[in-house]
Amino acid sequence: MSTDYQQARASLGARLRELRAEVTGRDLAARLGWPQSKVSKLETGRQTATSSDLKAWAEATGHPAVAGELQSRLEGMESHTRSWRRQLRAGHRPVQDALTVEYERSSVLRAWQSSMVVGLLQTPDYARAVFTRYAELHRSPRDIEEAVRARMRRQDMLYQPGRVFNIIMWEAALHAGVCPPAVLAAQLDRLVGVIGLDTVRLGIVPFGAQVAVPPGPGFWAYDDRLVIVEDWHAELWLDDPESLGVYQRVWDAFDAAAVYGSTAHRLISRARAQVERP
């Protein structure tokens, strides 16, 4: 999927090169006050243009009327691939707020997570540990407490009628040491309590279960209109029918391999017992 984004960026670069046909790269860089390397990177798809870059390019090449077209191309790219580098410039809280909007718009939500407990079911301490690790990874602003509060407020939806949360996790998520053992123990206790909620259907895919597809990145599906996939470098926001269909089939595959109810309870309890071992 990152390849699709790169192809879109290369296509935008080719369009920029067309507009520059009557101007040398050196002259255009001089007109814009840019290093010539920036012109080259934008044209070859090695750098993502900003809105202001595109407007300046259109004007400097004598094609101001195409600024809207260029902006539409950029928005089309960013609507599908939202890099963490850009999203986290203002910290994690705005990202949480944007996700809350999608939750509020949805009635049936489906989630898959293979590496950690899903955010909607996290305890504050567990969420704090996760946000801290991601802030370190992306070197983003440390608004950890604001992000935790935003995530906890979203959990109020678990107790509101009108929504159904179908959540599946790989058993590995119950054991991942993304937080201190005491925090993980409390988190597993929280999951046990969630099993009884009438708004949540929590499934666990056991170690060794036969699965139709390999465990992959986590994602949320919002009704039948949007899927958000998390990767290390970006979130993918997918709304085209073909992609939605793929993720529906992926979720169905994990649903078929998952256990629910008392069997899921036993897997969580087993993980909890292992946390307590010296």
SSE order and pairing:
Elements lengths: L1 H18 L5 H8 L3 H8 L7 H10 L6 H12 L2 E3 H4 L5 H12 L3 E6 L10 H15 L5 H11 L9 E7 L10 H14 L5 E6 L13 E4 L3 E5 L3 E5 L2 H17 L3 H15 L3
Parallel strand pairs: 2-3, 3-4
Antiparallel strand pairs: 1-7, 2-5, 5-6, 6-7
Number of helices: 12
What is the ordering of alpha helices and beta strands?
HHHHHEHHEHHEHEEEEHH
Structural class designation: alpha/beta
Mean pLDDT score: 92
Q: At the first level of CATH, what is the class of the largest domain?
A: Alpha Beta
Structure description:
It is a single chain. The chain has 278 residues and is an alpha/beta fold. The protein has 2 domains: 2-78, 434 Repressor (Amino-terminal Domain) (Orthogonal Bundle); 83-275, Endonuclease, Chain A, CATH 3.30.870. It has 12 helices and 7 strands. The chain has helices at 2-19, 25-32, 36-43, 51-60, 67-78, 84-87, 93-104, 124-138, 144-154, 181-194, 241-257, 261-275, and strands at residues 81-83, 108-113, 164-170, 200-205, 219-222, 226-230, 234-238. A 7-stranded mixed β-sheet has the order 1-7-6-5-2-3-4. The model has no long low-confidence stretch (mean pLDDT 92).
